[in-house]
Amino acid sequence: MSIRNKNVSRLFFVFCLIGLLSAAPGVGLWGNDNPGNSYSNDQEQERIVEKVTVTNVEVPVRVLYKGEPVTDLTKDDFVLYESGKKMEINAFFLKRKKIKITPTAPVETVETQKAAALPRTFVLVFNVTSYNDEFQKAVDHLFDKVLLPTDQMMIFANDKTRKYPDLREKAKIKQQLVADLIEESQKSKRRLQQYINRLEAYLQVNDFRIKFSRRDTERPQRLISFLQKYLISWAEYKKLYLTPRVDRFYYFSRFLEKLKTEKWVLNFYQFEFFPRIRLGSDILIKMRNIASELSNSNNATSVAQGRKLDAILNQLSTELNLVQGFPNEEITKLFYKVDATFHSFFITSTNPTTMQDFDYKTVSSDLERVLKSITDVTGGRNISSNELVQSLETVSEVEDVYYILTYAPQDPNKKGKLKIKVTNRRCDVLYDDNFRADYISEYLQKLEEKIKTPDVKVIDFSFKQKVLAFTVKDFLMRKIENQPNPVGRIKVRIRLTDANGNSLFDSARILTAQKAEMKISIPAFSKIKKGDYNFLIDAQDMFTGKEDNFHQNIAVKR
Question: Which one of 180, 256, 331, 542 counts the least CB within 10 Å of its CB?
Fold first, then answer.
């Protein structure tokens, strides 16, 4: 909740390709008999819509009790507030859908015939490192028991993506999918193994064990250096394999929003492993003991080393058990609007051979958490099991039930915050409290600005007479409140360290630029002594998020 490039891992599933789809917003995803006219009509419709006053708003609301949908509510059971004011609910609808299609009574009206003929779109997302018999059985079950010849389908299998306007050639499509999954899982496994091999070489574990057994004055620093390398390796792994890109979620939500079909997203997420230092290993026990011994000594240097070692060990524990910083709530809110139901299957991979003193453990990720959140708010099921056929049978019977409440906003031009309650019931009420806001368009507009704007740069560095000077350029200029002309907003962080890496200066400020280039001069370094130093300058464009990281070695001779 993939495409592989320098920054995006195999784990980053469907969202890694949606950017390609969004490049041509007027062309139907599944093809169009006359795409040119379709695009023209869409543009005309958008122009008309802009001029229409908002008189009624439809808000989808899911109501759950102990995780199961509540299906017997009436309009009188709901209370809706906008910006704190109680609003009248004008209309009320109950909607139901599930994957498994069962025979129904004969259709009697043209309207019900049209509703019954609504096509279905399935988006199948596979993140696979080990394609096995269970996956094969799941694919067979999907094509034999779930998918219909009239269904539309899009498939993301690691690096491969395919789309089908219908499934009339089921046997051929299934054969193609199986071939893709086998090929992509083999590629992913090779990539992962290559990473593990690099990690082992980088950490030099065997060499470290020999040096670790020696008792000498440099041992604490060796320990600290080893653990710092391990943290660097984890940061690299997290970036490559576990951290999804926010923009892909926006592209994917817009893609789903535009589909005028019944929409189902099935995610097959195979967990990744990362080598963790074994909790009961000799290495970890000894490192804890050494940290304690150093911290309780009478030598100030040893105490400092012991505290630093203990801090790094605690940081490791925290880092490996928690991935922070991803806007989970922001991303989840996008999918209230798209009328698609997600079902997510979480699958354990085969545990690879372990390095000595290391266990391979599955790691929690931002992608896993956001997938679970999206699945919850869209009425689907999260299932952790390698029994995929059984999991598919379960979700085929799950009915997605939700209510549509309509109301007239008090001010059509003001997007007020919503609060919806169910009276006299202890239920979980799921809805978007800012439903009228168009998060997707607002974000994509900013993203377009970001793409068009060159990368911000730090240039013309100098350190003459101990005065730091440099220029920041290529940032976005924009009109903001209380400013007569467009300005730039730049966050600049300046760090100075000595040859041993000790911090001597670290300061950050947000600056307003009146011109397209900002020249900065800082005479704050007159007291630094003779020696070698490092300047690190980070400049971030606050409007686009783009940044430049500049590093310069300097030698002060007197």
Answer: 542
